Structures are given as structure tokens and as C-alpha cells.
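Researcher: Checking consistency across runs. Here is SSUH2 protein again:
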Amino acid sequence: VPPMTEVAARQALLRFVASRCCYGSRAAGELVIQRLRPRGTYRYRLETFSESRLSEWAFEPFTKAGAARPPGDAPLDPWDVEVGAPPLFQGQTRRCRVPRSALVRDCHRCHGRGRSQCRVCHGAGRARCVTCKGSRRRLKQQKRCQLCSGTGRKRCNTCSGRGSKTCATCHGEKKLQHFKQLVITWKNNVFEFVSEHHLNFPGELLSKVSGENIFKDENVVVYPIIDFPEPEISLASQRAIAEHSAAFATSSRILRQRQTIELIPITEVHYQHSGKPYLYYIYGLENKVYVQDYPERCCCGCTIV
């Protein structure tokens, strides 16, 4: 990481001030930078790319004769079904059929008839007239209802007077094909740890910036980092790998792991304005700014991040 200069420090502050409606830019241009104190912290990240499989029963209208499972053929185990994995460390969910798991049964909704009773007329084919409400006469008038010819009922529009409709479950095919559906979930599980920086600086801001990658290890299974100059990073690596192994090794399949260490630069900028000392921080490769107190503010409506 190149060292911070006074010019870069002032430009970073000017960009920050320009993004705040109640911060004046004059102070940023007039301040006197007294000291640039380089600081930094480490961020450890473990990524475990896992695959989990779950089978569930599904069904669809049976339309193809001979598509059911031949007698004696056992369905494949969910982990024996070959499915191409997505790019590494990119989450995704897919659904596919388990081969040789299809079974054909009569439709449970219509009991194999292909049609179900109309819910509006309850199978009668005729429903209450919507104009006279079944009274046979028009409301507020003593005249016979012309829409239903005084019968109080008319042909059901929902089923066209047939009393039944095509079964919505089997689509009139009378049979359903039941099969096992495989739900495959690929997930990138991330563990992240930032070492203590002992600064008057909100640590959560560091998760929003990038750092310089100083270590990368990728394999099917990675091993804990040992004897890193910052002991907290070694301990975090051991804890992360143990947690991911316990969480994913039994319930899913670990396809790949990757662990990285980043150095996040932090510069402590000490300056004076109108004879008073002030301080702000520049952090991340993006040169983001965190200000504790700014000498030229016209209101208190801005969040200082």
C-alpha cells in the first residue's frame, strides 16, 4: 500500500466534505496538516462453498404412456444424481427430477374422473340469479325477473351448466405422475474477522472497504494459519475452520474452501484549524474518511461516516 501524502489526505477530506450538505469546504482547504500517522488492521475471511441436497415429492398430470418407473427399478440416491455445479463461491438453487422415481396414481382431487364438481353451483348446473337474488322478482319492483324468467335461478356461468369443471390438478388426464424432486442448494458461507485496531474508530466501517490482499489459500479443505504476526488472525483461522467443519461437513458437502488475509490501511490525520487541534481518519484502498469533529459545520443533520 503506497504511503499517504498530505495532498492525497486533503483531497480525500475535500471529497468527503463535498458529499455532506452541512460541511463547509473552506476549512478543508485552509487546515494545516501536522502529522500523518499510518495505522492498519488485518481482515481474515474464510469462504466455504458447500452443496446440500434435499428430495421432496412432486406431481404433474400424467400424459405420456410408459413414462412411469418400470417395476423393480429403484430410484437413485440423491447424491448419485449427476448435476453440474455452478461457478465456485457463487450461490445458486436448482431443482431436478430423481431418475427412476416416477409413480402413476389416480388423481387425488377428482378420484380419476378427470372432472371435479363446480364449487359455484355445487354440481346442479344452475346457480342463484344475481339480479333478483333468487326471489324471482326484481328488487323494489313487483315484476318478474327477466334475466332468470322468474325462476330465481340461471345457468351457471362457471361450468357452463355442466355441473362440473375440468380438474385443475390433473388437467383432465385422470392420472398424476408422482416423482421425487431434488432440490440442490449451493451456498458460499463466509466467516469474517477484523483484528483490533485500538483506535477511536467504528470497526463496522471497515467491512465496507477493501484492503490489500497479502495472503490467499484455496483448496478442497484448507488448514488453519499458524504463527501469523498478528496472533488474533491465527486464532480466528482456527476457530473459523472448526466452525465451518462442524456446521457443513455433516449436513452438506464441502466443495471448496478459500481463506484470505487483507491489510486494510488506516491513516490518522492530525491537523490544526484556527489554532485548535483536530483529527480525522482515512481508511481502505478507497480512501474513505471518518471525521470525529469538523471545524466548519452549519447544522447537525449529517451522519459523520
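Researcher: Does this match what you'd expect to see?
Model: One thing to look at in this run: The chain has a mean pLDDT of 86.
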